[in-house]
């Protein structure tokens, strides 16, 4: 039984602070149409894909800040973004889209949704759980801020894996499965979403792989030179950018392997306002940790690969067969303790 599917990361280059969504959405649409020509069935767009990465700025006007958010329950009906969902439906391509969400009660979340073309609706929503950066801006006026803790609340939807219909032929279905027959690895693809900084936390990946996730998808806005936040030894901006890309690849490859799943990552990258540098490196990684496709530019670019979900079985049934090898009786600290408690001094 073939479990092959062509997937893509839709990388988006520079978006300036004053760029309206009406200028950016056509760029996303162009990549979506390219995906249609390449028989892609699933496209992952970046984190906060509709505007510049505004948490780097301090806003004193709520009105100005709110322009970066999407308001209202159903993003598919948002006037600026509706054309993207309509096009996804007509091209029969599922999409993941990241955006800043303002709920009716005024809470801000860093959110993404999974839109199923065959269902014509949002199948799943994820709100970023690991918010990096600070609440207050740095005193150093030269520092680049990351004010996500100021503008967003940690996500309240957990790490919920889901199946998406219509992506692979002949998927096993509940209604037709014979009783007693194992359907493990035969149903519609099991998917999960994270957002940017979440990818650095193994707990996030493991929460999904414990639900059998076969593809993890995430967008990111990763500063190339965030020396006030990374806390690394002194480096030139060039070295810092190489290091940021190295860590981004490292966590994606290692966690794809350790969780026996594919991953699709999509960067917002390039030089926003000609000065805020974000790394590129959008990629598709297989369950053995190999990069199967990677962006070649720091601009708008579609990164495409045909993947076979059957390739997840080796890791899930051998090295990382959780049911046989995990030792949960020894993992208690993981959900009981947040920070580090060192052993007593000698
Ligand atoms: N957007 C986002 O989450 N960016 C973070 C930067 C962290 S700055 C220390 C990231 O993990 O890439």
Give the structure's gist in a few sentences.
With 346 residues, the chain is of the alpha/beta class. It is 23% helix and 23% strand.
- The tally of beta strands, per DSSP, is 15
Strand and helix order: EHEHEHEEEHEEHEHHEEEEEEHH
What's the structural domain tally?
1
Helical stretch tally: 9
Radius of gyration equals: 20 Å
Q: What is the fold-level CATH name, i.e. the topology? A: Nitrilase/N-carbamoyl-D-aminoacid amidohydrolase
Tell me what portion of residues adopts beta-strand conformation.
15-25%
What does the overall shape look like? globular
The hetero molecules present are: 4-methylsulfanyl-2-ureido-butyric acid
Helical fraction equals: 10-25%
The first-to-last residue Cα distance is 59 Å
Overall pLDDT level: 96
Stretches where pLDDT falls below 50 for ≥5 residues?
A: none
- CATH class equals Alpha Beta
The class by helix and strand makeup works out as alpha/beta
Major sheet description? 7 strands, mixed
